[in-house]
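Help needed: design a sequence for this.
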């Protein structure tokens, strides 16, 4: 990571974002898999985000839903919805599932299983041996069924219906079912993944399926590989960005940076990093560009330090209280406003930048809004995490 540090300013960072995240018309992708490869991970906490994020980046967005369904649920399953960084649900290219599991999932999985066993013991529920029997029976049932809901699995393995009291006597006391907690553990352990939704592409109710088989990788090597992928897509990034995005300890981040031979560069925030061979200047896109990105979009949520593309004064309107970003309007590499969909299907937007963006920008943004309405059609999309500007636009 040695050598002279080249300065990469805001303009170049925005150029890299535009081109590598497939946001300019000339850089748009031809398939959902191409988008996922470019972004490394698509936020999946809100199911609609996956489709909206892909549609914003496709050259021909009209077939977004069908193409994404095929990639997620087709026989060859080129995209997989699973737990990943920071214990969050993402959609990954299938080829990356082993890397994600080893680099981020193993540590989370160990904590989740230990917590479940501890909680059940406190509640006087059956022990870990009993839980292991239920787990093996559940996985066998899922193998027979192909895909199934928790209720369908409970018909095959009735012990999944058993309940236990969580945090007895606490203000947050609750009644948990074995199925809810066990399937979550199996998910972070990489044994099961989310299958087809019960409803449309906006539904948050999913079936479960056995995870695609993948090799068991060395965690340190997997961390280096994941970091290499993400820095290629999102570099330069600071150490704080990397620690936040991965959810790793700082020692893991530093070890992975050294393993891939990352190069240090100078940013307005301090020292940043790019992959080896990515230090040369990146020219800006040929023309300014507009985009309407969904809530939790991986570009808007990609870095912890966001001042280079998101003015601090806009955050209170565009984020909820937990730090989840809502739908955003972009102009030439920066967030300038928010958007929403009304009950009649109209896509409405508002510029929050106090200085305005100019007539050309507004024309381009309006065209993107019409493009979005064209492929979303009669489907109504309400973000899972509501933000002030989105609620104001709808109301």
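Sure. Designed sequence:
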């Amino acid at each position: 990571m040695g050598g002279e540090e080249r300065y990469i300013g805001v303009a170049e960072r925005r150029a890299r974002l535009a081109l590598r995240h497939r946001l300019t018309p000339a850089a748009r992708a031809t398939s959902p898999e191409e988008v996922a490869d470019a972004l490394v991970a698509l936020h999946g906490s809100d199911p609609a985000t996956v489709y909206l994020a892909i549609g914003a980046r496709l050259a021909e967005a009209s077939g977004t839903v069908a193409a994404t369904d095929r990639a997620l649920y087709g026989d060859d399953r080129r995209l997989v919805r699973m737990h990943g960084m920071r214990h969050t649900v993402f959609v990954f290219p299938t080829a990356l599932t082993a890397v994600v599991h080893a680099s981020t999932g193993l540590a989370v999985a160990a904590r989740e299983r230990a917590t479940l066993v501890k909680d059940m013991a406190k509640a006087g529920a059956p022990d870990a041996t009993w839980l292991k029997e239920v787990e093996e029976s559940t996985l066998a049932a899922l193998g027979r069924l192909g895909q199934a809901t928790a209720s369908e699995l409970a018909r095959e393995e009735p012990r999944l219906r058993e309940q236990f009291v969580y945090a007895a006597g606490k203000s947050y006391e609750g009644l948990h079912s074995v199925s809810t907690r066990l399937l979550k553990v199996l998910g972070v352990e990489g044994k099961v993944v989310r299958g087809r939704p019960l409803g449309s592409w906006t539904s948050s109710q999913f079936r479960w399926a056995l995870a695609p088989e993948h090799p068991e990788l060395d965690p340190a090597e997997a961390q280096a590989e994941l970091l290499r992928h993400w820095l290629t897509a999102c570099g330069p990034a600071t150490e704080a960005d990397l620690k936040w995005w991965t959810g790793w300890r700082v020692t893991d981040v530093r070890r992975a940076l050294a393993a891939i031979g990352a190069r240090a560069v100078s940013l307005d925030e301090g020292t940043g990093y790019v992959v080896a061979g990515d230090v040369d200047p990146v020219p800006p896109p040929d023309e300014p560009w507009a985009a309407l990105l969904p809530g939790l979009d991986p570009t808007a949520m990609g870095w912890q330090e966001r001042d280079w593309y998101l003015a601090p004064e806009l955050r209170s309107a565009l984020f909820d209280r937990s730090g989840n970003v809502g739908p955003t309007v972009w102009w030439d590499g920066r967030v300038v406003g928010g958007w929403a969909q009304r009950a009649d299907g109209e896509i409405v937007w508002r510029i929050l930048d106090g200085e305005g963006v100019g007539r050309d920008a507004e024309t381009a943004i309006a065209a993107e809004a019409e493009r979005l309405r064209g492929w979303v059609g009669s489907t109504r999309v309400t973000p899972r995490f509501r933000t002030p500007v989105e609620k104001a636009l709808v109301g």
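Residues 97-122 form the longest helix (26 residues).
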